[in-house]
Design goal:
The structure holds three protein chains of three kinds. Chain A is mostly helical. Chain A contains 23 helices and two strands. The N and C termini of chain A lie far apart (about 50 Å). Chain C starts with a strand and ends with a strand. The chains are: A mainly alpha, B alpha/beta, C alpha+beta. The interface between A and B is large, with 45 and 50 residues.
Chain lengths: ~575, ~350, ~350
């Protein structure tokens, strides 16, 4: 009896690829389309399209303010990238490759920052560096004058705060690069007579350079799309960047969505170009990446007397990233209205704000909403990317297309995506706009690329023969996926889930345009309260929330160390 | 003596009687709906929470959900919700400089029984909105940083170089922000002299903060700025009462606005919305306003601190009515942008 | 009984004109044969194996096990890999780390199409497979706690537990250290004979191939260049490639001095005049160029009757034997001799060998 089966047996993977592809396309493509459409059309008051126009773009390129915003964006992103690379990179090297003391402080600062909404960090630093903050206070008491040493609402202030916003992530990622570096190369340099610094300069850094450059691009892309710092720090100093221009265009009456869309398209193009270079650099980074495969850990450099300088740097970083902001928030939370650190204010300290947070009904609902939305988004993303990432990493049918679709949203800065999602779902006749669903959808679109990276690199770490063996042993594609791939991929999936869950809560820009009363999430609520003048309450709530999220961030960290893969292919 | 006591008792009884009267059918229908959603520009701690507590105490079966947002944000949200045909709010209030909502048909016509005795100037001619409370915007300063004898007393005083860089106002492009100030100056000094003044004021580099006027005031209290322009005098009074180092300056004329409140067209809980509006405009609601140092629109209910109103405080005002706003807002915004940004 | 006919699969390669893959491979294997595909990397042996397994789809050809056709390009038949009922041991062993040894081996029984066999039947089969590979009692051990050799046995047990008609082994010994490798060679061969399953074995190690196989197919650049039993391959290499790939070979290039019929002896003269008798498997005409292959162990160092003369340039004592590099003109001839007598470096020597040990390969 000869096999009477058809030439092409229905490959389950094709079916899966098609289904997943449809879901991804429905999610990721409409926002892009709508942005493009909005940027070249005019609409009436109700929002119906009335005609085509190049006016929005024309306005953008002739308005000198718009050009200045583009310049400001570049300077802002460039400066904060450099600062975060230096701060995070030096810290990473000290912690991973030397015998500096107090290493645990660096990890602690990083973990807590993973759980802290950006906006809290910004608010704390606005105070610390602001006119009534300790920096200027001390300056005034030293000089006896009334001036401030430092104006925080300046480009310098913006760069400073944004730079330290990103340095923990840089620390995390460069840390894993340094950890995985091949010790042989450096030991060969030392055997040839080089000092620690010479080895660093001539061997370690050049070898890590592709990974460093790729990371620099990544931070630059995030910074250029940053919203919290430009909105809270830049706008009061009349420094405008692309993201705040987009935001402003959407909150005037009537909203100038065409203009906002044109801005967004420009931003998307800039980011798309940068992303292209980033992916090229990443591939090169992998070439240099030396995996000894035998768990060979490099020996730490002995810094000798320099140990204490290194320790001081680690402690300084800890203070900047964690200690000072937390103290500030506590100060704000304990006072009825904000004033500078002084003994005179001590009698006014009270727990009233904390009491309000625990008793006022809104806060519980707020916390629940935020957790629910983040969890739902994380779950959906990991489910979809588990399938899409497996197919893409194994070069299955449609793999390249799935990969592109899943990572498409990286080109959108958060605020642009918020505008696009709002526009799409205002037109959809389902009750999505104004509910929590729209925020969940926005999160799914925004963070899909991260799920994809986790799964993709997780699958690459699984030897393809593990799946082939299952196939030869008689398992169908689905069975292989269920019994072999899924269990082995679970560390990566869990790590991805936790990461997305944490990061979703940190970002303001994506939700600020989409939240409604009854469907508020944490970052937006904090922003609202800040704008409203409820500084004390938001500090109290922010602290409690940070504690909660730090606990989850610890989980993430432990998971990552144990078996979950690093996001960037290490 | 006894005669006055009698009158007092009678008045009190009358007041009580008035306070108790809400249409029972409306109350029943509202209770059935069970919830009312209110988009407001009023300050949460100062007004929204106490009003909610009072309302829910009065009508136990109805839950009041408020969402505080700036006027522009509230407007944008409501316009968006209308586009999506998914209104979420039952009641909304904005300052009287806002005409976009009225023009877009967001408000539903409803003439509250409680506001029957309010002057016509405080009501929309077709019943789209009613004034809930009054605003007077002026200059407030931090008493630790500015001595009372040095404090500005006229608009011209604001041009003193010693204030350079130490003034702040909200960045909101609305009647209660810098555009309202522009209107005040142009109206008071005339077009030419007004513009000249504004150019000189721009030299003072007032800081635009992207927060509500209440939050700007908090920054003045904290010492971040020495004085705030276009500050609500009732906000300042509340903080002064709480012990903040703050004072209202007598820079005349102040800008007079009021807060308008209305029921939303196509809202999910229409009866509850109507009941809420009735409540806020009733004696009870207006008394909550009074207690919380807001300035009740009800002509029968005085402000707790009489000086906050023009007759009690003897200050001049420039009235910014909705008609004036509709005509002039765009121009004031462009003047502001031209001169200050 | 495995039939492979005209199997072709070509990988397009942008950079060279040479594409990888296999071309027109054909062989028929009786039941129970241990058949080895031998060749350097890139020769197509793994491709051939994977085509038989169903991991690759060939461009052309027929693959059949018994009467069951697994693949026939012209008739558009292609049985999916998970329905071929073949056992395979991968180069990396592919032992699933999240399962125990028992679960790894039981897997093929559990996922087979049709109803899952009852638990006792599965247990019985797994136990039997375990004892066949000498790992009885290891069932509960987590897969992550196995040594390299143990993993290999588990992989083998998994491949045979469902009594396949065909067993495929993809360089299974290359990840083991030398001592273990030798041991496992013997072990594997013994097991295969015990079970009696037709086996295809892929390796680049010619000593492995010679030691284990019933039949060997030597492959070069996608084609089978010689197929035969180990002795045939070793002593009668078909061309220069096979001669140098299998064992060490001395290649002496000269000219046919005396015509010979195919399969009979003739004579070859080297450029320096030395002439000797050798075998012409393909025959030869006088004057034709001829390359002769002589195995080092077939050459003896003699004091008289030498066919070649040269000088010892290197001497290596290998314990059981001694290896000499002898300079003859500009070629180096390698000789392996007994260890009782060692000739020192620099000594002029004469070499002699049987005609039947010298084969013309090209």
């Amino acid at each position: 009896m000869s096999g009477a089966l058809t030439w092409v047996r229905q490959d389950m993977r094709r079916v899966i690829a098609a289904l997943v592809g449809i879901v991804l396309a429905v999610l990721m493509l409409p926002p892009l389309w709508i942005l493009l459409q909005d940027s070249v059309t005019t609409t009436n008051a109700i929002g119906d399209v009335t005609g085509f126009t190049a006016g929005h773009f024309a306005k953008l390129f002739t308005d000198k303010d718009a050009l200045r915003s583009i310049w400001n964006s570049l300077v802002f992103a460039g400066g904060s990238t450099v600062l975060s690379l230096v701060a995070g990179g030096v810290l990473a090297w000290l912690v991973e490759r030397t015998n500096a003391p107090f290493k645990i402080l660096a990890y602690l600062a990083t973990i807590v920052s993973l759980g802290t909404p950006y906006i809290l960090h910004v608010i704390a630093w606005l105070f610390l560096l602001g006119k009534v903050g300790p920096l200027n206070d001390i300056y005034r008491s030293v000089t006896g004058g009334t001036d401030s040493l430092f104006n925080v609402n300046s480009m310098a202030g913006m760069i400073l705060i944004e730079g330290f916003l990103w340095s923990p992530l840089v620390f995390l990622l460069l840390g894993s690069t340094f950890r995985a570096a091949n010790a042989d190369m450096e030991e060969a340099a030392r055997m040839s007579g080089a000092t620690v610094l010479q080895t660093l300069r001539r061997v370690s850094l050049p070898l890590a350079m592709p990974a460093i450059l790729a990371l620099a691009l990544f931070v630059f892309i995030r910074a250029i799309g940053g919203f919290e710092v430009p909105a809270l720090v830049g706008m009061p100093g009349r420094i405008y960047v692309l993201t705040t221009d987009v935001y402003e265009a959407t909150i005037v009456v009537p909203p100038d969505l065409g203009y906002a869309a044109a801005f967004s398209v420009v931003m998307v193009l800039i980011v798309a170009v940068l992303l292209y270079f980033y992916s090229r650099l990443s591939k090169n980074a992998e070439k240099y990446h030396s995996v000894t495969g035998k768990g060979f850990r490099p020996r730490p450099f002995d810094l000798g007397k320099g140990r204490w300088i290194a320790g001081a740097m680690i402690v300084a970083n800890f203070c900047v990233v964690l200690l000072l902001p937390m103290i500030t928030l506590l100060w704000m939370a304990l006072l009825p209205f904000l004033r500078s650190f002084s003994l005179a204010a001590l009698p006014m300290l009270s727990l009233k704000n904390f009491r309000t947070v625990f008793t006022a009904p809104g806060y519980v609902e707020l916390a629940t909403n935020s957790l629910l939305v983040a969890a739902a988004a994380a779950t959906f993303i990991m489910a979809i990317t588990a399938l899409a990432g497996w197919i893409a990493a194994r070069r299955g049918p449609g793999g390249w297309l799935l990969d592109q679709l899943a990572t498409l949203s990286l080109v959108f800065p958060g605020i642009c995506l918020g505008v696009a999602v709002m526009e799409v779902y205002l037109r959809v006749p389902l009750p999505i706009y104004g509910s929590l669903w729209i925020i969940a959808i926005a999160y799914v679109i925004r963070f899909m690329p991260y799920g994809m990276r986790y799964v993709y690199s997780g699958v690459l770490q699984l030897h393809h023969e593990l799946e082939e063996a299952a196939g030869v042993a008689g398992a169908s594609s689905l069975t292989t996926l269920r019994r072999i791939v899924a269990p082995l991929l679970s560390p990566a999936i869990v790590a991805g889930w936790l990461f997305i869950f944490l990061v979703a809560n940190k970002e303001l820009a994506i939700a600020v345009l989409l939240a409604s009363p009854g469907s508020q999430v944490i970052a937006v609520s904090i922003f609202d309260q800040w704008v409203n003048g409820q500084g004390g309450e938001l500090a109290a709530f922010g602290l409690i929330w940070t504690v909660l999220m730090t606990a989850i961030a610890c989980l993430f960290f432990v998971q990552g160390r144990r078996g979950g893969t690093d996001v960037f292919g290490n | 003596m006894r005669r006055w006591t009698m009158v007092g008792v009678l008045l009190l009884a009358a007041a009580q009687a008035r306070a108790a009267s809400f249409d029972p059918a409306l109350v029943a229908a509202a209770t059935k709906e069970g919830t009312v959603v209110w988009y407001s520009g009023l300050v949460v701690a100062q007004l929204l929470r106490p009003m909610t507590d009072a309302f829910e105490a009065r009508f136990p079966g109805i839950k009041l959900q408020y969402a505080r947002a700036s006027n522009t944000d509230t407007t944008v949200k409501l316009l968006n919700e209308a586009r999506a045909h998914r209104m979420q709010a039952d009641v909304a209030d904005v300052t009287s400089g806002n005409f976009a909502l009225t023009d877009a048909g967001i408000f539903a016509p409803y003439r509250p029984a409680a506001a029957r005795h309010y002057p016509d100037a405080l009501k929309h001619k077709d019943g789209l909105w009613t004034a809930s409370n009054l605003y007077f915007l002026g200059v407030a300063y931090n008493t630790n940083l500015v001595k009372p004898e040095e404090a500005p007393k006229t608009l011209a005083d604001l041009l003193d170089p010693r204030w350079k860089g130490h003034m702040a106002w909200t960045a909101e492009l609305a009647a209660q922000g810098p555009p309202g100030f522009v209107f005040n100056v142009l109206t008071t000094m005339g077009e030419e002299k007004g513009r000249a003044y504004l150019l000189r004021l721009a030299v003072q580099q007032p800081v635009s903060v992207a927060v509500s006027p209440r939050a700007v005031l908090d920054q003045v209290i904290a010492g971040e700025h020495w004085m705030g322009l276009m500050m609500y005098n009732h906000n300042a009074a509340a903080s002064i009462g709480a012990g903040a180092p703050l004072a209202n300056a007598r820079v005349e004329p102040l800008v007079a606005l009021f807060n308008i409140i209305g029921v939303i067209e196509g809202s999910p809980h229409p009866n509850a919305g109507k009941l809420l509006v009735e409540y806020i405009l009733s004696d009870e609601g207006q008394q909550v306003m009074q207690r919380q140092d807001y300035l009740p629109a009800d002509p029968n209910i005085p402000a707790r601190i009489p000086e906050l109103k023009p007759d009690g405080g003897h200050f001049a005002v420039t009235a910014l009515t909705p008609e004036i706003a509709k005509e002039g807002l765009a121009k004031w915004i462009s003047v502001y942008r031209e001169v200050f940004r | 009984m495995l039939t492979v006919h005209d199997l072709t699969k070509i990988y397009a390669n942008r950079f060279d004109t040479q594409a990888g893959g296999v071309r027109e491979a054909s062989f028929d294997l009786p039941d129970g044969t241990f058949f080895t595909l031998l060749g350097p990397s890139g020769c197509g042996k793994t491709t051939t194996l994977r085509c038989v397994a169903g991991l690759e789809r060939p461009d052309q050809g027929v693959i059949a096990v018994g009467d069951r056709v697994l693949f026939d390009a012209s008739q558009r038949i292609a049985v999916p890999l998970n329905e071929r009922g073949i056992g395979m041991v991968f180069q990396s062993y592919a032992i699933w780390p999240h399962m125990t040894v028992f679960e790894n081996i039981a897997f093929p029984l559990r996922v087979a199409k049709g109803r899952t066999p009852p638990r006792e039947a599965i247990e019985r089969d797994v136990e039997q497979a375990l004892s066949t590979v000498g790992l009885s009692g290891y069932g509960d051990r987590p897969a992550t706690r196995l040594s390299g050799g143990q993993q290999q046995r588990v992989a083998l047990a998994r491949a045979i537990v469902h009594r396949p008609k065909l067993l495929l082994l993809d360089e299974p010994l290359s990840n083991l250290d030398a001592a273990l490798r030798e041991e496992m060679r013997i072990e594997l061969r013994r097991l295969q004979q015990q079970i009696g399953v037709t086996t295809i074995y892929v390796t680049h190690d010619q000593s492995e191939a010679l030691a284990m196989s019933d039949r060997i197919a030597v492959m070069e650049k996608g084609r089978i260049v010689q197929m035969g039993d180990p002795r045939e391959i070793y002593f009668r290499p078909a061309n220069v490639f096979v001669a140098s790939f299998i064992g060490a070979a001395n290649l002496l290039t000269g000219v046919c001095a005396e015509a010979a019929a195919p399969g009979s002896e003739g004579a070859v003269r080297l450029p320096d005049g030395a002439t000797f008798r050798c075998l012409f498997p393909a025959g030869g005409t006088a004057g034709q160029a001829a390359t002769v292959s002589v195995r080092p162990e077939s050459i003896a160092l003699v004091s008289e009757g030498a066919l070649l003369r040269g000088e010892v340039t290197a001497t290596s004592f290998l314990g059981g034997s001694v290896r000499y590099d002898v300079q003859v003109g500009d070629t180096v001839v390698r000789v392996v001799g007994g260890a009782e007598r060692m000739v020192a470096s620099g000594t002029p020597v004469g070499m002699s060998f049987e005609a039947s040990s010298a084969v013309v390969v090209g």
